[in-house]
Each structure stands twice: as C-alpha cells, then as structure tokens.
Write a structure and sequence with these properties.
Layout lengths: L1 H23 L1 H21 L5 H44 L5 E6 L2 E6 H44 L12
Antiparallel strand pairs: 1-2
Helix pairs in contact: 3-4
C-alpha cells in the first residue's frame, strides 16, 4: 500500500509539473511545433516511388559514369606519355651529330641505340598511343551517349529529386 501511494504521488507531481510547464509556454510551444508538422506533410507530397527498373537505370548510370571517369584518366595519362615521346624526339634531333648512340629506356633499363633507331621506336610508340587514344575516345563518346539517355529518362521521372551531375561539370 505504501508503494502504491508513493507511485501515485510521483505521478501527480509529474502531471502537475508538466501541466504547469505546458501552460506557461503553450503559445510558443504550438508555434514551434506547427512548422515541423507541416514539413512532414510536404515530404510525403514530394515522395517519388522508385521501381526496380528505375533502380537498374540508376545503377547503370553509376557504372557507366565510373567507366567514363576511368577512361578520362587513361586518356590524360596517354596524352602525357605522348608529350614525353615528342619531347624525347625533339631532344634526339638536337643531339644528332654529337654522338650516334642515345640511351633508350625499355622497361626499367636503358639500352644504347642509334639516334635513327631510337627515332623509329619513338615514332612507332607515338602512333600506337594515338590509336589507343582514338579507341578510348570512341568508347568515351558511346558512354556519354548512354549517360545522356539515362539522364534524360531519370530527370523526366524524378525531376529535382535526383542529382546526376558530376562535381567537375558544375
């Protein structure tokens, strides 16, 4: 019986304190709570349901975007490599006549080559790099086409609720 009366007294004290607190700030309390309750309703209005096909399109976009980023990095590396070969060819042309042999790097080792043979290697490698770059650029163009089609479809369905732009494009 004593436990019951203690629990009842605690309940009454809590009830009284809460009532006093709510009545003292009731106008402010209702003002603060109203905007949040309206926000919950607006979120439900803007909800877009994602189907399995939509998720597949989003995943396809992400995969192709990653491939495109990788291809762009590869193209940049090939451009740098081609510039290095052009610079090396220029240096060999300036050295012609001084010494017929120049060190030519294959892998991690340098091999002495005649300047004509080294120029042949450099020119051959430049054409190989040009072909590689052309192949990668063609792949990038086809991936860009796929990405633009997917962007069009996804923006048509989701509007501003989806962001498919790269940070570097903005």
């Amino acid at each position: 019986m004593i436990v019951y009366s203690v629990v009842r007294n605690v309940y009454l004290v809590v009830k009284f304190c809460c009532k006093a607190l709510l009545t003292s700030i009731s106008n402010q309390y209702l003002y603060v709570v109203e905007p949040f309750s309206n926000m919950a309703n607006t979120v439900k209005d803007n909800e877009v349901h994602i189907t399995y096909e939509d998720q597949e399109k989003i995943n396809c976009f992400a995969r192709n975007n990653a491939k495109l980023t990788y291809l762009k990095e590869e193209i940049k590396e090939l451009i740098k490599e081609k510039e290095n070969y052009v610079d090396a060819a220029d240096e060999i042309m300036m050295l012609e006549g001084d010494d017929d042999t120049v060190p030519y790097m294959i892998g991690d080792s340098f091999f002495p080559q005649t300047s004509e043979k080294a120029m042949e290697y450099l020119e051959r490698r430049q054409t190989e790099i040009g072909k590689e770059m052309e192949t990668l650029e063609n792949k990038a163009v086809s991936i860009n086409k796929i990405l633009s089609d997917l962007k069009e479809q996804l923006y048509a369905k989701f509007g501003d609720n989806i962001n498919l732009e790269n940070d570097e494009e903005l």
